[in-house]
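User: Run a structure prediction on this.
Assistant: Running it now.
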Amino acid sequence: MARVTKPLTNTEVDKAKAQAKVSSLFDGDGLELKINPTGTKKWLFKYYKPFTKKRTNLTFGEYPDISLADARKLRAKAKELLAKDIDPKEHKDNLSRQEKERIENTLFNVAAKWFEVKKTEVTPDYAIDVWRSLELHVFDQLGKYPISEVTAPIAIKTVKPIAEKGSLETVKRINQRLNEIMNYAVNTGLIHSNPLIGIKAAFERPKKQNMPSIKPGELPKFMQALSIAGIKIVTRYLIEWQLHTMVRPSEARRRYVVRN
């Protein structure tokens, strides 16, 4: 006949004294109160692992932080997992790991990792502009959010004040950069999908404007101003070369980069 363990009482748990060696009180169904010689009391749940059937145990915490009633609830939850062939210790470790990753992978931290890649693809000045825009418009509101909790409504709420000021080009750039960060998070396995992919639809598009131009009669005045402008000599040469060849600024820059 199987031995029946009498459940513990709160009085027994509270008045249990430390011995010269480690001692234990048993509540049944694998729940045990281990009492160390130092006087600390710790709840343990002993069980057999699914499939391997190896004996192991799971620590619930110390008494009185975890009461007898709390320990019994934790035992019940562990037994529910075992009934589904889920190891409660591995389940607890996975939850702890996920929570740690959630806390560590804030939007700011993920953005910093994304930026390390981004700045290798653009000029140093442009890289500074990219990071500065995030510092000005994003990090105060979204920086501490776990990347997995950044949603379209939250991002839209952050960007909306910029749109209300009429800075639609800035809105466009911020939305693009947020999407790049979220895509980086997807590609590195931090989240399953990018929830911000359609947020540009929440804002008015910037109106296209023609580049400013000067009339032929204003060219001498422009050339005089150019000759004394506080710009790099190579920039001045590129502008003069454009005037002679009539190429677009992007084409002029591209030719300069290729030659150098």
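The CA atoms of residues 12 and 25 lie 9 Å apart.
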